[in-house]
Amino acid sequence: MEEPPMEIDEAINDEEIEHTDNIEKVAENAEVNEENDYVYPSLFTSKTLLELSNSTWSRSKKARGDVQPYLRGCKWSPDGTCCLAVVNNDGVHVTELSRDLYSGNVSTDRSIDVMDSVIHVKESGLIYDFCWYPGMNSSVPESCCWLTTKQNSPIQMWDAFDGSLRCSYRGFNAVDEVEPAISVTFTPDGRQIIAGYRKCLRTFDVDRPGRDYLEHSLANSASCIDTNGNLVAVGSWNTSISLYNINEMGAYKSIGKMHGHGGGVTQVKFAADGLHLVSGARKDHRLLVWDIRYYRRPLNVLTRQVDTNQRIQFDISPCGKYLVSGGTDGIIKVWDENQVKWKTSLDCTDVTKDNVTYKFPLHRDSCNSVSIHPLRPIIATGSGQHHLINPITEDNDESNCDDKEQSETKDMKYSEVTENCLVFWWIGEVPDLT
Q1: Which domain holds residue 148?
Q2: What stretch of H or E contains 132?
Q3: Residue 413: inside a domain, yes or no?
Q4: What is the annotated signal peptide range for this record (predicted)?
Q5: What pLDDT band is residue 369 in, cutting at 50, 70 and 90?
Q6: How confident is the model at residue 347 (pLDDT cuts 50, 70, 90)?
Q7: pLDDT at residue 80 above 90?
Q8: What does the alpha-carbon distance between residue 241 and residue 282 come to, in Å, rounded to a whole number?
Q9: Residue 202 forms beta bridges with which residues?
Q10: pTM for the whole thing?
């Protein structure tokens, strides 16, 4: 990875984000660097999404009847060459972006690609969280890796070329038992791993696998984490969000807590400007936008459909203008800052008012995953959720075993409304669209 210019690097390293002025200086430096390197394309200009590629998962014939494969999250790699997806009861899958989509535009007559997983890691147990190495570059094989944390296991680092296990980072509880992390992320420079546990945060050095870590005690479980420079936002199942500042020694200094959600916080994400934070929660139809300089109350409230405890992902474009969220109704919602000032305070007194810019009904089932491509106008969406079996079956007629099996299958919600797929969509300009 290339090192940033010396003047920008020194300016950022010398800043200690303890008050508003320092936070704004870091954000301004980041914006200048971003403008000099790359100009992100405009999104949703055609108001139409074109399906580019898709991949689906189905239950094996030998699997138990209660096994339901569905996506639980997807994330583009930092270099944009592939997408990492977690499938319930089927581990982790890596799918590649088609070569013809690396540059140029697409036409309406382009055929839809059916994707196969280039890497499949058949992990057992429930995967709590996953993330890419921030400096991942396909031309540098040693940088191509991701982290997962799952039930009854330590944090594990996997190779993105062959799916092999590189190393693990182990946290231990008070009785010296391996404790699984609930959430995990890299620091922006990729040198450290911040993991959230039931009662603490633990910081691991990437180049020192094992059980060496720094620990910071928490009052509640760290359900989700995001970092921005020296700032760390930690969501909790008790509906609160905590802000911390990390110094050079790795010590955490509490900045404050934010309250406003009605359920456990499932995702927090900093905007590109470094001044705004967006959060979502389980069984909470609101996305809360926070100004970290004045964090006592939400700056804005955006609405989406979340009817389950499942984590429903949202994403912010690298340019910071677009906020996209999935929903249990299968509709993705888009807030465009050029048309809706979602980063500023709006009139939220009318709870029936929907201030969304665009709506796209893309899936028949819950759209639980969205991820915007880091370089191209492409978005990845994933669908699926756990469906309960209806305990009441109507089978009054005497029939043979085959008829009975068909009747039971018909009463299963899973067999009727399920959709578990990963789809890539074009969200840029379509020249030949009439």
Answers
A1: 44-60+68-384+419-426
A2: strand 127-132
A3: no
A4: none
A5: very high
A6: low
A7: yes
A8: 14
A9: 195, 215
A10: 0.83
